[in-house]
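Researcher: Before we compare anything, I want clean individual predictions. No alignment, no superposition, just each chain on its own. First chain goes here; please echo the sequence and then give the structure tokens.
Model: Echoing the first chain and its structure:
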Amino acid sequence: MDPRHNPYAPGAGTPPPELAGRDDIIERAAVAFYRIGAGRAARSVILYGLRGVGKTVLLQRIRLAAETENFVPVVIEAPEERSLPAILGPALRAALIRMNRGEATKSALRKAFGALASFARVAKLKYGDVEFNIDFSPELGVADSGDLETDITDLLVCVGETAAERKTVVVLFIDEIQYIPEAQLAALITALHRASQKQLPITMVAAGLPQLLGQMGRAKSYAERLFEFIPIGPLENDAARQALCVPAGQEAVTFSEEAIVEILRRTEGYPYFIQEWGKHAWSEATASPITLDDVLRANEVAIAELDASFFRVRFDRLTPAEKRYIRAMAELGAGPHRSGDIADLLGKKNSAVAPVRARLIVKGMVYSPSHGDTAFTVPLFDGFMKRIMPPLL
């Protein structure tokens, strides 16, 4: 069929044409925003799940909802090997400028700019990757101690006081939050806790991989009480059908029941994969309805596309030892697997491969769903590893 009308949109963080099965989560975030804006208690929101479940898309949709309420978004992606001050400072600078409205003489706003200037000056000395500047005199004694926990707390409190003065809400939107080192994550948690205690209109919606729960618990023991942790998993059957069929229906195209069943079986309900299979099934079909034969032809193309992009980009970041560890996991199946079983397959003691496993967790390739277990963070990665790498001898 005509590729110009293909409605499917596979891609990293690309909004799907039909965001199915997530309305409840969007509403929970909206309720939290409303309560915080009204000076009432509400917890920050943490979305966690495997890759391909649509966390980034959901984060973007919640951000758009916040902007329609004239709240102030602070949008951050936490890349690997960057410090929290390096990514937080420029984003807060943009938020303060947005709240300025040409009235930087107001007391809370002036203090917040000064606090950010202090924070930038001290952070540059402590973290080599801090590069932003701000044309305000530092606020002496605020965010300038050199202790990250104290300084981020001072800074977020000043930003929250500015939001209160402006009668708005500042929302930190942080993607890939699992990449923030635990000591720096602890500082952020402390700052949000203090702002919550002072009932300031500043909150956070973040997204990350499943290991985030353990990271935040280790960073601060009270994190589970400060945040609402919301698991994001594959779509239930009805929502998966909706994500697949509604976009095609808007183009007056349907799927046969057999085609739908095959796509849902192949994709296991993961939104990213539904978009990939929908795209290629559309391309293989010559007319509506899209049939099982069309989907069977699309299977090979969809898998090749995933291998070349979604899977390969993660595989190429691994060392040879890490690739062998992942290949051993794949040999055992989709998982999760006991770490000892993986070590046995590699012919090594568990203690000998533990550093490799730890590096894979840091890289976001695997996580520990329970003590002693290891699982992929990327769905269907076991099949990719079997296709790309020969069995271990």
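Researcher: Okay. Second chain, same rules.
Model: Second chain and its structure:
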Amino acid sequence: MGAPSFSLAGKVALVTGASYGIGEGLSRALALAGAEVAVGARSREPLEELARDIGGLAVPLDVSDVGSIRAGVDRVVERFGRIDVLVNNAGLGDNQPALDVTEGDWDRMMAVNARGLFFACQAAARHMLPRRSGRIVNISSQAGLVGIRGHAVYSASKGAVNQLTKVLALEWSPDGVTVNAVAPTFTVTPGTRERLADPTFRASVLARIPAGRVGTIEDIAAAVIYLSSPAGALVTGSVLVVDGGWTAE
């Protein structure tokens, strides 16, 4: 028996929401693992700079627009001849008390976190299934597994991600396409750094994490690379929780 392979050499990956934060970090990690990486987002300038840095392809892609999703996936296939890995990272993370949620708040978050993610999966699978090969990794959250005050809409959207992951795995895995999710805890990013720097908030978070620290983008990237690689071939329909033990309680 040989050692398991975590290499993505020769694979083509598309990362959504790739222009900054977790998406940018995942794109760089996939490239270091050997993949040809297409980076998709609405923000054109940082996207093109990232693509140059990693020798990849910048793809204008708005996950709230199904036409944009399909065009973006098709562009990746036109450029590289196929798509092997889809990482659905694009998402919104606003939070507010449930009584303050408006229809606009609900519709905006669901349009990106659930609806957009589903149609990105569908667009990629239409190219993967005929080849009987592909990996789809959806970025979920621990908030899709446990309740967190002030996160009603976000938790609902990530719960939808987890259930979609399971259903799509059941439908597509017989034809060689695995579908999994990664559910991180609070992670240090440009968008969360200010909140996590607040001693009171940070203490409240760390009180829930047995491992005693918040997440890093590298923690998430390790899980994504595993699920995208040959080493993760038999894993499908799973939600891999990267939360330092938060949801174990």
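Researcher: What stands out in the second chain?
Model: Strands lie at 12-16, 36-41, 57-60, 85-88, 134-139, 177-184, 239-242. Additionally, The domain at 12-187+215-234 is CATH 3.40.50.720 (Rossmann fold).
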